[in-house]
Amino acid sequence: MAGSEAAWQLAERGHRVQLVEMRPEKKSEAHKTGDFAELVCSNSLRGADLKNAVGLLKEEMRRLGSLVMRSADRNAVPGGGALVVDREGFSKFITEAIRSHPLIEVVNEEVTELDAAPGSPLLIATGPLTSPALAERIARLTGSEYLYFYDSIAPIVEADSIDRDIAFRASRYDKGEADYLNCPMNREEYEAFVAALLAAEKVPTKDFERPQFFEGCLPVEVMAERGRDTLAFGPMKPVGLIDPRTGKRPHAVVQLRQDDLHATLYNMVGFQTRMKYPEQQRVFRMIPGLERAEFVRLGSMHRNTFINAPRLLSPRLELKSRPGIYFAGQMIGVEGYVESAAMGLYAGLVLAEFLAGRELPAPPPDTALGALVRHISEASGQDFQPMNVNFGLMEIPPPYRRKERRLDLARHALDRLENWARQAGVGGTAAPARLAAEASA
Predict the structure, then answer these.
(1) Who's near 423: CB < 8 A, 6+ residues apart?
(2) Per-residue pLDDT tens digits for 248-269
(3) Which end of the chain is more exposed for a tag (fewer CB within 10 A), N or C?
(4) Do residues 270 and 157 lie in contact, with contact meaning Cβ atoms separated by under 8 Å?
(5) 242's torsion region: left (phi>0), alpha (psi -120 to 50) or beta?
(6) How far apart are CA 373 and CA 228, in angstroms?
(7) Which own/partner contact pairs does 92-101 have at CB distance under 8 Å and 24+ positions apart?
(8) Are 24 and 140 found together in one domain?
(9) Which bin fits 174, alpha (ψ -120 to 50), beta or left (φ > 0)?
């Protein structure tokens, strides 16, 4: 995600880029294709509203000519208040754009050494699923012990296998369109389901690894271990939903979100898991409406690796100990597809300015992009953890601190971003002509 965005930004500004990707020659534990920007977990890019911090970040990226956002907007599928994409179309659009660009050379091989040509900057945007050989090399390069957490993938079911006499269409509080299928549970069904989750056989953790889960993407059984009602107040909360069969609010619901353009696949929202495959099928078919569910992908769990960015990187994402080597993406301590792509976009702008003999100033901290840059460069290195973009990271001017003024805050942030981009010559009215022409068309 980040590497694709960075390569695109550089090439669009007239710089030749060599993009090295090990897939499809060698795949990670989670990737299935050789396409760029493959979505291995959810197909949601989260909130689309400008009053939401990630919605604001997406709009900032659009204004900076983001390839990822262009693909997301063109491959959007219904998702209520979220920007949800057809995962195959999304990745293919980016892959075709990258491979057809005359200034981008794609090399398909695994990188095991990090030697850049003299005078040429090197950007490492390998993502959280860095191959073991390269991860070991990066660890030696940084001279810092790696930090890590575990991330989990939610299952996907075939739409035709969902019992529509039980599952009903609705969004919580009727927010947006009725884009979710909801599988309702009464108390007895819910308690039996939680008991099965707790008793199910899990994939064991390797002896040399200690589980350290990201709070925003906990496996469903880990949430259940925190208390039998935890799920009912988390991904299974029934608030704002009425079961049309009973006219009442269910005790809990499992929400399914459309996963492809033609609505043939549905993702189990919030149901990341580390249960073994046979256990997943047994337990998830206890959910009303999914008794005969056909799974096209079962959940899995993989190790996500990130560096201690505040100790290692400058605000320009450059390695303090090795000038000329840069990092981007989720590996630097941002969490989420959008945030990872945003750091790739920023890295591309930084490098383009460097190659032009200029230094790009950090974006203002009262923008979503600037808040992320400040987080990875100025947060405490003592207990650094990955972070999604949120308003708490932003330097919010006093007039906009109240929730009801979030839209005004977004407008302020966008104005600040436009001014920064214009003055730095990297976007806004100075956006590359090719991007501007397409936008106007």
Answers:
(1) none
(2) 999 999 999 988 777 888 999 9
(3) C
(4) no
(5) beta
(6) 38
(7) 92/35, 94/4, 94/35, 94/36, 94/37, 94/67, 94/68, 95/35, 95/36, 95/37, 97/8, 97/67, 97/71, 98/4, 98/7, 98/8, 98/19, 98/36, 101/8, 101/11
(8) yes
(9) left
pLDDT tens digit sequence for 123-173 = 999 877 778 788 888 888 887 565 566 666 789 899 999 999 999 999 877
Q: Of how many residues is the chain composed?
A: 441
Q: Do 136 and 231 fall into the same domain?
A: no
Tokens describing residue 79: 């998702």
**pLDDT tens sequence across 184-207:** 999 999 999 999 999 999 987 654
Residue identified by tokens 């100790």 is: 311
Which amino acid is present at 428?
Answer: G
Give yes or no for a contact between 85 and 27, defined as CB atoms under 8 angstroms apart: no
pLDDT, position 237: 93
Q: Is the pLDDT of residue 440 over 80?
A: no
Beta strands in 259-321, from DSSP E residues, in sequence order: 265-268, 295-297, 300-306
CA 415, chain centre distance (Å)? 25
Structure token digits, residue 392: 């708490």
215 and 340 in a single domain? The answer is no
Local structure of 351: helix, strand or coil? helix
* Domain of residue 33, residue span: 2-146+307-440
Which pLDDT score, from 0 to 100, does residue 392 have? 81
Look at the block and give the residue holding tokens 């090439």.
11
Of the candidates 237, 267, 302, which is a domain's last residue? Answer: 302
Nearest to 61 by CA among 423, 363, 440, 400: 363
CA distance 328 to 9: 13
Instruction: Please report where in the chains the tokens 């079962």 appear, as a residue.
Output: 298
> How far apart are the C-alpha atoms of 390 and 48, rounded to whole Å?
14
Measured CA to CA, the distance from residue 6 to residue 17 in angstroms comes to: 10
Give the whole-angstrom CA distance, residue 304 versus residue 123.
Answer: 19
pLDDT value of residue 262: 75
Q: Which two tokens stand for residue 362?
A: 């950090």
Under 8 Å CB-to-CB from 80, ≥6 apart: which residues? 171, 175, 176, 177, 179, 180
Same domain, 336 and 423: yes
Token representation of residue 202:
């899990």
